[in-house]
Predict the structure.
Amino acid sequence: MAEDFSKKMAKKGKFITFEGGEGSGKSTHIERLVTHLRQEGYHVLIAREPGGTEVGEQIRNILQYSKQSAAMVPETELLLFCASRAQLVRQVIQPALNDGTIVICDRFLDSTTVYQGVGRKVDPQAVAAINHFAVGAYRPDLTLVIDLDPRIGLERVRGRELFDRMENQALEFYDRVRQGYLDLAKRENRRVKVIDGGQTIERIAEQIWSLVKGVL
Ligand code: TMP
């Protein structure tokens, strides 16, 4: 039985994650939040998933940009996302939190719960077990889900040049993902907060700031 990694965390910093469908505006709001936090004098580190470490960036290439990956089965996909996370959490997130840094992560284990468990319909118990193997019982202090109709989000990302396997699914897949996040937020309503991504950037940023202030 693998040791529960999360038991070793002597966490002093705060861990905030952003979630949402394609084109929901996560990157814009992460940038704004980080700028705001730094202006207030906080030490902040940004990470992204999949990736965020040298090992993880290679996994990201296989998962998203390699044309040879078109035949990847959902089980392989699940393990690769979790492999990238296992590396990120030990190499980057844990040391930063132990130093008292605020870590902002663009996606974390909720993406696996929702994309692989709900989107790909992999057995949710298997997804939870593998997530647990990768990061233990450890969870973010706050998870912000930017909720947006995938029809609007996909329109925003389709202009990008890079071929992205994860952005090439049928619309039903993204509808399931959206619902998966809303259901997760109901189940874990203390940690997971939903923000209406159809509002103006200013309004969304204000809501994010007020939720973040609540955990600092
Ligand atoms: P992004 O970098 O634009 O957020 O894209 C990451 C893609 O990978 C997005 O389609 C969500 C997907 N993904 C999963 O399916 N499972 C995961 O565990 C993670 C972290 C991402």
Residues 22, 49-50, 81, 107, 111-112, 115-116, 166 surround thymidine-5'-phosphate (CB under 6 Å). Strands lie at 14-20, 44-48, 102-106, 142-147, 192-196.
